[in-house]
Amino acid sequence: MMPRWKFFLLNLSFLFGFLDALEEDCTDFEGRTVSHGLYYVPGPSACSLCVCYHSEPMWCRAIYCDPPYFCQRFRAGKRCCEFECLDDEPWIEPKRGGSYYAIASPLLTLGLAFLVWWK
């Protein structure tokens, strides 16, 4: 038969192991539960990505997103990489199809062909 103190220690170690397993989950910035070992956004900044490691954010990295290319004026949203365009009309980049490019492209092709032929 097992002595009482060994039985007590065995139960105590099981209890601590069970409580330790309960604390391995993390909570993201929206209040959702994230399992140990998974990537998540801890908050308060929505632009950092971390690994849930025993209920703590570890190995965090900042997330960088370029603003939309079609907006000259924009506002950052509540979520990471969320932008709101404030322009009245979408901005369109000027086209490169001008007369300079129309002439330069065939001349460049002919010049390269001449160099290949010359060697």
Please give a handful of descriptors for the protein shown.
single chain, 119 residues, alpha+beta, three-stranded antiparallel beta sheet, two-stranded antiparallel sheet, 2 helices, 7 strands, elongated, IDD, membrane, signal
SSE topology:
Layout: H1 4-22, E1 26-27, E2 33-34, E3 39-40, E4 48-53, E5 56-62, E6 74-76, E7 83-85, H2 99-118
Antiparallel strand pairs: 1-2, 3-4, 4-5, 6-7
Written description of the protein model:
The protein is of the alpha+beta class. The protein has helices at 4-22, 99-118; strands spanning 26-27, 33-34, 39-40, 48-53, 56-62, 74-76, 83-85. The chain contains 2 helices and 7 strands. A 3-stranded antiparallel sheet has the order 3-4-5, with no helix packed on it. A two-stranded antiparallel ribbon has the order 1-2. A two-stranded antiparallel sheet has the order 6-7. A hairpin with a 7-residue loop joins strand 3 (39-40) and strand 4 (48-53). The radius of gyration is 30 Å and the shape is elongated. The termini are far apart. The chain crosses the membrane at residues 100-118. Residues 1-21 form the signal peptide. InterPro entries: IDD.
